[in-house]
Amino acid sequence: MTPLDWVVLGSSVLFIVAYGMWKSRRNATMNEYLLAGQAIPWYAMALSIMATQASAITFISTTGQAYTDGMRFVQFYFGMPLAMILISMTAVPIFHRTKVYTAYEYLERRFDAKTRALVSTIFLIQRGLAVGVALYAPAIVLTVIFGWPDQWTTLIMGTVVVAYTTFGGIKAVTWTDFQQMIVMLIGLIAALIVAVGLLPAEVAFTDALRLAGAAGRFNAVVTSFDWNDRYNVWNGLLGGMFLALAYFGCDQSQVQRYLTGKSVTQSRLSLLFNAVAKIPMQFAILLVGAIVFVFYIFEKPPIVFQQQEMARIEQRAGFAPLAQRFDKAFEARRDGAREFLESGNPLPFQQAHGEMERVRKEAAAGVNDTNYIFLAFVTRYLPAGMVGLILAAIFAAAMSTISAEINSLATVSVVDIYRRFWNPGGIDSHMLAASRIATVFWGAYAVGTASFGRNLGSLIEAVNMLGSLFYGSLLGVFVLAFFFRRVGGNAAFSAVLAGQAVIFALFKFTGISFLWYNVIGSLVVVLVGLALSAAAPQRRAAQHSESA
Amino acid sequence: MKPGDHREPPPLLGTWGRLYTAVVLYLIVIIAAMAVFTKAFNL
């Protein structure tokens, strides 16, 4: 890090935080604190929704995912536009009409208090687990660059985010998200341009695409179907749609973004903007990873990108012959790449690439360095100033996600649990204070649990898998609420429990891709809910005849 | 019609139905474009 990098990074973070706090300096009521007085324009909501979803994990893990596995992860987002349309048609007008603070508040109006409490608790568990992982991602950044212990980095980052989220509530979250998303987009475009510029002079952009393709990294659309395959077009469209329906339609960290809109139209536009912009953005992030892969065809990569792990591996007996094999394979792959570009014969390149992959697997068995690849590239090869800009983008992504998650956790804790069950008659100023205390509590909780992210491998997969363990049930109960008027509270409550049990069983006992948990879980909830509600009148009739 | 009414038309294309159809068409085009890229470059 040069002084220029520090200036770029520091001024970006300070400006964003100061701007967010200035925009949110007046929060007199709980409605202003939690819903921004429902006066946020659609473009700010749109970028806030996008920023909330795009965490630091998106930058550092998605690029690494493209490096190791190719671009097929983009298919994960194919179902999102369909989900956004369905949410715009259903959830948005209902939530606006009922003037709720949280999605789960609506469940009590539709079913009963226990269903609201159960679903709120599921959200608090799921989002509570995820917020620690989201906070851990930027800790990786600082650990890679400075070698600082991750406990310190999570504490520093957590304190900054909690400070402005507690002070400014959702207005601060939304307006900082807005700025943070702009910084992320600038960082993304800059990273792509610089990565292409760092390729050897004789390698044009289309050559880079050909090389990435020859190594299986340009697999953006996979049409073959496999239940156990995480990423193909069918999983992406159906599984991805269900996951997005649950995330954007039932997860308070997203629902709260579009509840701040002053009208149904404003909220719908913010969602449809994301429907259009998200896939190209993810494609661009993955393309950066693919280009980094091509860069390392001509510049020797480390066997493992995580420095501490690499140092440990170097101490092992038998490392020297592996390193020699790796060096030889690298040279053969580089020469093979040039031959491929000249003659069109990919075989020598592909064989040498296969040998490099084998050596990497042998040397680094049990080590997952996906999250370190992009950072290692940024810190070693990017020019002064650019490192600060990319890091600012990563920190912006991290702060936007964590602040939104903490804010939504605090909202559900206060609105759905504290105000509903402990203090229903509490005055507005008391609830405003309670919301601030809850924000600090969840921030501290995130800092305390962040270190669990250390052993989760690819963090982008970990957070999505974690969400999928709970989202099926959440989605199922909202489908029952919106579309099946005859289903009552008892049936909905039991159906959620049944759906959750089935999802946990799938996770424990099968190898089915996690994207299908959302489909199967929500279907189980709907079917069990319908079956129980169909059986309920018969039971009541039977009980009635027995008592008669 | 009051502001915030869910029947309020979108600022583009006149009706929500048309806007949703446009988004679906966009999705089809973008997947097709990526499929073409995959076919062209992935070996």
Can you tag this structure with a few keywords?
heterodimer; A: 548 residues; mainly alpha; 2 domains; 78% helix; globular; disordered C terminus; B: 43 residues; 1 helix; 60% helix; 0% strand; rod-shaped
In short:
The complex is a heterodimer of chains A (548) and B (43). With 548 residues, chain A is mostly helical. In chain A, 78% of the residues lie in helices and 0% in strands.
Q: Give the percentage of residues in beta strands of chain A.
A: under 5%
| Content-based structural category of chain A | mainly alpha
In the CATH scheme, what's the topology name of the largest domain in chain A?
A: Sodium/glucose cotransporter
Share in β-strands of chain B = under 5%
Extended strand count of chain A: 0
- Total helices of chain A: the number is 22
Distance between the first and last residues' Cα of chain B: 56 Å
Computed CA radius of gyration of chain B, to the nearest angstrom: 17 Å
Helix share bin of chain B: 55-70%
Assembly category:
heterodimer
Low-confidence stretches of chain B: none
Question: What would your notes on this structure say?
Answer:
The complex is a heterodimer of chains A (548) and B (43). Chain A is built from 22 helices and no strands. By secondary structure, chain A is mostly helical. Chain A has two domains: 3-26 and 40-296 and 376-542, Up-down Bundle (Sodium/glucose cotransporter); 308-366. Chain A starts with a helix and ends with a helix. Chain B has 43 residues and is mainly α. Chain B has a domain at 14-43. Chain B is rod-shaped. Chains A and B meet through helix 5, helix 6, helix 10 and helix 13 of A and helix 1 of B.
Blueprint of the fold:
The complex is a heterodimer of chains A (548) and B (43).
Chain A: H1 3-23, H2 30-35, H3 42-53, H4 56-69, H5 80-89, H6 91-98, H7 103-110, H8 113-146, H9 150-197, H10 205-214, H11 233-250, H12 252-259, H13 264-298, H14 307-314, H15 319-343, H16 347-363, H17 373-381, H18 386-422, H19 428-449, H20 459-483, H21 489-509, H22 515-547
Chain B: H1 16-41
